[in-house]
Amino acid sequence: MAAVPRVLNVNVGVLGHIDSGKTALARALSTTSSTAAFDRAPQSRARGITLDLGFSCLRTALPPQLGPGPGELQFTLVDCPGHASLIRTIIGGAQIIDLMMLVIDVTKGMQTQSAECLVIGQIACQKMVVVLNKIDLLPEGKRQSAIEKMTKKMQKTLENTKFCGCPIVAVAAKPGGPEAPESENPLGVSELIEVLKSQAYLPSRDPSGHFLMAVDHCFSIKGQGTVMTGTILSGSVSLGDNVEIPALKVTKKVKSMQMFHTPVTYAMQGDRVGICVTQFDPKLLERGLICTPESLHTVHAAVISLKKIQYFRGALQTKAKFHITVGHETVMGRVMIFSPAPADFNEEIQENAFDFEKDYLYQEAYLSKDSNTSENKENDQAGGVQIPKQQWALLEFEKPVTCPKLCLVIGSKLDTDIHANTCRLAFHGVLLQGMEDKNYTETFLPKLKVYKLKHKEGQVERVMDDYSVIGRSLFKKETNIQIFVGLKVKLSTGEDGIIDGGFGQSGKFKIRIPDGLKPETKVMLTAASKKKSKAGKGDTTKEDESSKNDSVQPVTISLLFKRYVFDTQKKMIQS
Fold first, then answer.
1. Phi, psi of 144, deg, nearest 5
2. Where mainly found (predicted)?
3. Non-local CB neighbours of 536 within 8 Å, separated by 6+ positions
4. What is the pLDDT of residue 513?
5. Rounded to two decimals, what is the model's pTM?
6. Euclidean distance between CA atoms 290 and 271, whole angstroms
């Protein structure tokens, strides 16, 4: 086989707010370059697939920083249309987007979706170029100063992100707008290509692991079979391999493969490839995943690592519902948030793994510096909220999702008004453990040791003898006190006690004090009960007055225990 000149493929995600001119820019890029290899397959034209469906490419000579020798650099432009699919495309392609182009309408600046794109970029991508588009709309006299002003503004916006200091290029992809004649030449596009070349790097690719490919295009060729084109997200594929289309539960053999219109026998992570199989109707799969047979799992629930997105204004609360994007699907799901046990808050957590042996603490909401639950406010005055190094969530999906293990997960509130100026992406994380059993609540959840701390308070009613007291107000009348027998309690005066059993019918109970009551506690309790009996004889107003003057503090009883959320027996545990 003759050596194919080296073609290095770099995937560039083209993102931006609706109408910022992404499609026009991708079209200008792929046609300006003299070596453009705009994919003009007759099938695409016949089916009227425009660039909106995603991929066009631009080829240029290999820049010197990428190694010696003849060769070409191919930029595959991944145009991400609209919002829902933007999130999908990016997350689906997160592992393979090497460079992001954030397109900004220079007359409008940052808009809601541009901010969301920035968030996704920070989660999914290492390098970015900002493109200020539509400079033809600025009056020529003021154009330069307007561009400088917007450039400064963008630099400021990017200051606290990982893209601080990234290149910012001003262009007009289609001067005069969509209606203008084709003869109008784009402005600044060749400069942009030079910037893209300077930003290109040898992406790290890994052929190991299961084969997984995002198919964005499926069509038949007479006498050949059905071709699925797409980008390999992980692993590699060779001629003759079996691949599964998990959504349809169908397995097919790879009959032939092409890259850059050249037949190949092997392709790996990051490559754009066309795979030909036989006896498969292309209408069944427009877009979706294909993979090594049996390598994807279908899960009903999952444990994920959890990070809140700083621009999300709402709180992340347990029991709340979010749109959850996993792999290539978006489904509704409910979250339950939990953290390490307080003693482990500062422990380093192993990445991409979850330890089922450990105990975890249930949280009503995600703990962060800006969380403003009343409890945290109290802690704040006491010297700052303790924030754990890592938090997790249990996600329960409304319908099962098929995805690779350890895939990226993003939670958003897509039902928020699209015109409201807020970030709808709420959290992101990695899927650490999926639950494939539909009865996971019985078979799996009991292994998840998330506990709630329970704190009950009651009062000492009276002394029985030196080693026991009667308590009240700790339990409701109907509570079965038997299940609490043997639990330890503490009196506000310092003594330790053990619940001995119920006393009478009204929820009162007996506490044994193994080390005996302190003399001063006895005095306090006797004074309190004397006062009561005195008041009992007189009328009630006197009681109120006497309690004002004679401030005998009641002795309180506290009962602390933990209970595991998924323990079917609801056992109470004390350390």
1. -60, -45
2. cytoplasm
3. none
4. 95
5. 0.73
6. 14
